[in-house]
Amino acid sequence: MNFRSDISALNEDIIVEQLLRSHDPDGRWLDSEMLLQEVETILSFVLQNDVPRPLMTENCITNVQVFDSKETLPYAISRISVQMLCPCMGENKIQTRTMALFDLLKEYRWDAKAVLVLGVLAATFGGLLLPVHLAFCDPVAASIATLNQLPVERTKFRPWLESLRLLVKAMVDVSKCIIKFERLPIKQVQLDNNIVGKTLSNVYLATYRVVKSALACLQQIPYFKQTQQATETRKAAQELSTESRRAVGELSSLGYQLLSLHTRLSKQIEDCSTQIEEEINQKLRNINTGTHQDNQDVLHLLFSLQDDLPLQQYSRQIAITELKEKVILLLLSQPPVEPLFFLLQQLYDHPSNTNTEQNYEIIWVPIPSYQKWTDEEKEIFDFYSNSLPWISVRQPWLMSSTIVNFFKREWHYGNDEAMVVVMDTNGEFVNMNAMDMVLIWGVQAYPFSVTREDELWEEHGWSMQLLLDGIHPAFETWVKQGREICIFGSENLDWVDEFVSLARKIQNLGFQLELVYLSNERTKAMEESSILFSPTVEQLFWLRLESIERSKVKRIESSKRPDRVFEEVTKLLDFDYGEHKGWGIIGKGSEAVTVDGEKLTERMRKIVRWGEYAKGLGFTEAIEIAAEKPCELSHTVVVPFEEALTVRVVTCEKCKRPMKKFVAYQ
């Protein structure tokens, strides 16, 4: 049986033409790299000469992803194996069978064609050789090997096995080159047509040789079984020896041809990759200064260098064309989702987003802590990308290293903090980090530009709305009902108990007052987020304050003017709980007053003493009145009886305190 592959005897152009005629990809996508890793693991194990026990490795075949395909990976492997192991009539010639396989694989990309065929090789030789390897330690495996007429003694087929191992290694190395080329963003750059043309031709021929070599390997299975049968006579042994040398020679010849092709192809792909990287780097350097008609060119440059469907929302694949005419928020972060990401959900869940929900999208771009993704990080990404409402990069571990390095070098992305880069509908970057403004204002920050952030600070001052809107679920209801709010914090439980007791008494007097207690341990609150989908008001409050501080710092440095909001936030973030018992913030939606905790409880005691005479005052008003010194001398204000009936409380014109009512008869 002669399997010597002499491609030089044929016209390579004719072969390439035949291959292209049988190539009709329908958009299906197979994770060839992951499948090849598993194939390589299987073959490297079963083709070893001496293996005392099987390696304990995790089965990852089920994790190999196939998109937009009508058949599952196991079914595809089974369908191809039938063609490879059971040729039809008239297809005994290896050249004819090779081209028949390409007809069968016409819907797949070139890398998938090669790797699927290697998958059949792994399944076949794995099934044959695994019992042989286990025969010495497992009687059942030895029985299976005997029933299948397989040689248990390795010395009988050691040379053949070594030649097969070297050929398989060459096939795997060539397939890795094909995968690398398929992932190059050829469409996004303009390369030398001569270089690309030669490289493409070699990719086609490399795929052809991998498929042809795999068929040659499978056709030697009968010889492999003969090593067990040809032990009865001297003549049979001599014939086996001759056949063995011929088989080893055929495999070695195929291996050397693939090694030669691998050397040439890897050099060509490396040249293409270098040119592509240089051109992409040049485009990235001009990304902030270039003019664009829309956001499509920029999005393609960043995300679709290696994939036409690079994004997903839950399990649905997203084409970049679906994001045209939308403001894009690029969320760069490590794969573990921090509590602050849940504030970003306000952009989808906030009641006031109905007018702008179709005009922007968040794209989550997870970046690993190190250069290589870990299995844990991949699992975390899969969980959150299928759980959270925003769009995410579909397979971030396949992103171009050039793009990731650009994020780190030019956009100054660090692993410690997330950032939100905003691109408008024209593809212009209008805010290099809108994280803080989104955490503060949510959907009100649309279109999330630096100019819009300046406008928002002109419109908003120190208020309850600034502190609680989008954080406390009942805030909007309280505002509509005209209720006053008191936020307070302390680590002194005695003071907290006293404060709550006084507040309840004041509520019983008829004050429309709501209480929000916040612990001072904001760092601990961030670290102990045990239920990520339900961050506490406390967590979100401190995140909001830190965002306000960072946002204000940038403006104070440029304006060099005092800022009340910044001063108030700094007091809370740097509050000394050892020196003071607590703090309080009181007010309604558009207003807020910060009060020291001890002073606040002192004034609340006065309001309680006033009793029913304080009815009609607002809580903030009453606290401010209680801060004033009372009049030194008593005085009387005469009010007509009819007017007194309509006025719930009469205050002193000097100290503004509520006055006791008496009825006088004249």
Alpha-beta content class: alpha+beta
Helix content: 40-55%
The largest pleated sheet is described as: 7 strands, mixed
User: What form results from the Cα inertia axes?
Assistant: elongated
Measured distance between first and last alpha carbons:
133 Å
Keywords: Membrane, Transmembrane, Transmembrane helix
Protein name: Protein SIEVE ELEMENT OCCLUSION C
Organism: Camelina sativa (False flax)
Pfam families: SEO_C, SEO_N
Description:
The chain is α+β, with helices and mostly antiparallel strands and 666 residues long. It contains 26 helices and 13 strands. Helix 5 runs antiparallel to helix 7, helix 5 (110-134) packs parallel to helix 8 and helix 7 runs parallel beside helix 10. Mean pLDDT is 80; it is low at 1-7 and 523-533. Helix 14 (375-385) links the parallel strand 6 and strand 7. The protein has a seven-stranded mixed beta sheet with strand order 4-3-7-6-5-8-9, with no helix packed on it. Strands 11-10-12-13 form a four-stranded mixed beta sheet, sandwiched between helices. Helices cover 52% and strands 8% of the residues. The chain has helices spanning 12-21, 32-46, 73-85, 94-104, 110-134, 139-147, 158-182, 193-218, 221-229, 234-285, 296-303, 340-344, 346-349, 375-385, 401-409, 435-441, 450-459, 464-468, 475-480, 493-508, 522-527, 537-559, 564-573, 597-610, 619-626, 641-646; strands spanning 29-30, 66-67, 311-313, 316-318, 327-333, 360-366, 391-393, 419-423, 429-431, 484-489, 513-518, 583-587, 593-596. The longest helix has 52 residues, at 234-285. InterPro entries: SEO_C (IPR027944), SEO_N (IPR027942), SEOA (IPR039299). Residues 452-666 form the Sieve element occlusion C-terminal domain.
